[in-house]
Records
---
Amino acid sequence: MVQKDDNLKDIISHSKEYGFVFPSSEIYDGLAATYDYGQLGVELKNNIKEYWWKAMVHMHENIVGVDSAIFMHPTTWKASGHVDAFNDPLIDNKDSKKRYRADVLLEEFVEKIRQKIQKEVEKGKKRFGDDFDEEQFLATNPNVLRNQKKIEETEERMRAALESSDLEAIYNLIVDLEIVCPVSGSKNWTEVRQFNLMFSTELGSVAGDAATIYLRPETAQGIFVNFLNVQKTGRMKIPFGIAQIGKAFRNEIVARQFIFRMREFEQMEMQFFVRPGDEMKWYDYWKEQRINWHKALGLGEDRYRFHDHMKLAHYANAACDIEYDFPMGFKELEGIHSRTDFDLKQHEEHSGKKLQYFDPELNESYVPYVVETSIGLDRMFLAVLSSSYKMEDLGDGKQRALLSIPPALAPYKVAIMPLTKKDGLPEKAREIMDAMKLDLNCIYDEKGAAGRRYRIQDAMGTPYCVMVDHQTLEDNTVTIRDRDTMEQERVNVDDLHQIIGDKVAMHKLLTS
Ligand code: ATP
């Protein structure tokens, strides 16, 4: 655990050092849990967006996109349930004065017991070697069984308390489990209270309730209110989807762990409208599609797991998360939710407008059901960074910092370098770069020793370096150096564009 936390610290400082992520308004000592993306960060972020947009919109004939406003009519949030129910249960520790989400404290408690079971399994594996039968061990080992029972009992009580929003029961569970504050180590807790997560502001110069509007806490509602606009103008036939990428705002009780939980963040959401009754089929379909999208990146198949929701949101009839093994452990990266017809029906009721679809095959009109996929762009960014960041031993006490970002997502695809600053090499390098930059994001570097320049590109995550040397002037060849293997190959300049273009192409991810 300690090692993982250290890893997060290293990632944060590496991100800052190379211009991926800066603390926001840093010259004023920053603003809690708010970050700015720097010159490399914005490129990585844009590439992740492109990968998502292509996979969701361009690869699906029945999905289109929108870009709706952040401000929406305030009744939207009454209809969606956010005004009344977008609350988190919060609890304070009286000694440390730290504030926690009560449900997160409980989840972390359960996760710790899970880790204990995992440790028992590791011990068993070591002791019995090849003869170890994990299934049998899990079914019979007394320690495992005791811990498993504790997890089940805790989860059952959690489910009951959270589903009925019974704040006293949540408090009692925290006390009964003897959960201590991670900072003060004490059990001196306040009662549990509800806290609404929406930021409000006022429209124009009018004061008072009527002018209160909210910064959207999710992008989904901008899709729902445009459901008929898109369906009619795009002549969409059910099943079809609407996708959107945009900012969302939540006044999180505890915003920490770098860009994992922020108060201003970005979401990539898709609402898929289906025939009532078909939603579970499409829920399974999207679960599979989304996990494949993640795995195609090659960040490590064992870094993902599905987690079914215990407490279903007020709108859902099935929901799960794709969790990722972040430096802080397995946490939610993406949610897949079957939202029923809740949102459209609510908007019908509050707006007085019909939001129905006439199904020519059934010859009837209905309010469609919705399956949603919702991923946090910033969390995806952290997933990519944390799996890519490595300190590699090169022998002789030398090390290199490496970001092995999947080439299709890397900020720069190629660095072009003349071996020296003279003999016409810079001119030749510039000529190569001018041709390549039409298609690929290139960076030019002529300063310092070649080895040092390679190290800088490794740390920035640039997958390929092209070196222009004296031989280039004689036979029109250059070397391509591979970031991950550090191997070099000599190729003809005429083939360079094609070779690198193929290596960094996004279509490989989209078709795998
Ligand atoms: P959590 O349980 O971690 O608070 P959530 O279940 O409330 O997340 P959703 O409402 O399902 O999150 O939002 C969809 C996605 O948006 C999440 O999977 C996550 O990737 C992202 N997200 C949500 N809240 C934040 C935040 N405060 N900062 C960054 N990303 C977020």
Note: The mean pLDDT is 94.
---
Amino acid sequence: MLKSNTDFESIGFQLNSSYSSLPKKLYTLMQPEKVTKSSLVVFNDALAMQLGLNFSKISDQDKAAIFSGMLRIPSSNPLAQAYAGHQFGRFTYLGDGRALLLAEHMTPDHKLIDIQLKGSGPTPYSRGGDGLAALGPMLREYLISEAMAALNILTTRSLAVVLTHQKVKRQVELDGAVLTRIAQSHIRVGTFQYAIAEGGLETLKALADYTIQRHYPHINEENRYLGLLNEVIKAQAELIAQWQLTGFVHGVMNTDNMAISGETIDYGPCAFLDVYEPKTVFSSIDYSGRYAYVNQPAIAAWNLARFAETLLPILNKDQFLAQTLAQNAVETFLPQFKDEFLKGMRKKLGLFNIESNDETLIEELLSIMQKVKADYNKTFVNLALDLDSFRINPTYNAWLEKYELRRSKQKETFAESVELMKRVNPSIIPRNHLVEQALLQASEHQDLSLFEHLLDLVRQPFAYMDEQLYLDQPDLQSSKPYRTYCGT
Ligand code: AMP
Ligand code: MG
């Protein structure tokens, strides 16, 4: 146990309780469920350092006690946040059913961040759920969110995973765990949906003002709320373009899983494409393919339309005008997404300048990749490292000729083009079968060696180490499509 407050002081928490200044309808103040025993599984020292937190004087046992909720951070005011959301298109009241905002912390570069515990026990928003989480899925979030951050994709981060030594009942009994999640905030589209539906106009306005101050303080449009809508649309256009460029499938893009900050949030049934098949769905419960890879931009636009609807009462007194403003703003999402996507694709192909036929060149490549069932990530790596490997497949011939001509016409050298490609095309992504193997070893055999090794590799995705290139292959043995599960 920690002996005195001095130890806490050495960590350097700069606590804040800004969320609790919002209308009370938006949260419930409460403490995490008491666990009696906890032990540290992983801790993100590099992230702690970035956040200005120094744990060098804190033992692993005490870290586990802090990040399981056993030991209270002095002067913190934990709370569960209320929110709603369209889940697979249906509106539902939700909220932190198994999470708590443990504290807000001001980093040395004056960024306010949320420290959230996930799996810390039931809350008033648990809706009959046990409020708990199992080790495997929490390690999964840790691994994938760290990989995303290294891939330069905006995301929530993971600070720690702690075992609670409680059993969690799912289909079988599993080891209980708590993940510490770091986010710019946990305000979601669903938080706005909740604010207007439950709290009304004043609550909505307070939330919108708070969000602007916290995330988009530079907004200087006369209509601040339209400014907020535009910023969120821009942030999502950039984010979803990054997902598509990397072959990331979120899997459960409900409006409660879309962060207003533009961070990727909630790593449930997510996974990365192996074969380039746009209709790919990994989630075991996504029967209609609503959240398939190809649908992600359109779903984001749909979610943003729901966000815009919540803002209507404050966009303009004239509701007809408010609707026009909202609609015009939401309509800019897909063109912005497309611009970002094309910009990113040019880089993936080693192209520096813009030419009018680029879109066709990209579409043709993707269509061949789909036809020949090419591995998504490997294709771009090979375009950088091994162009000859495409010559043996006649399906690529005509395209390859156009592509090589296009690349040779730019003023940059071939070597510069390859360098550009290696900066954006990862030499390793968290391949589904590797992730599964690592999690299985960790959760069933208490052996973290594979997990830590994979974590190390996906944290340097542009290192182009031989081992990464070797491991970055789909599971060639498996004949079954990959499936992921939520809420576990
Ligand atoms: P998710 O699919 O993780 O986005 O969760 C959707 C909603 O279900 C959120 O309100 C979660 O807090 C809640 N939830 C998920 N798992 C549990 C659980 N085991 N106990 C209580 N609530 C949960
Ligand atoms: Mg969620």
Note: Residues 8-183 form one domain.
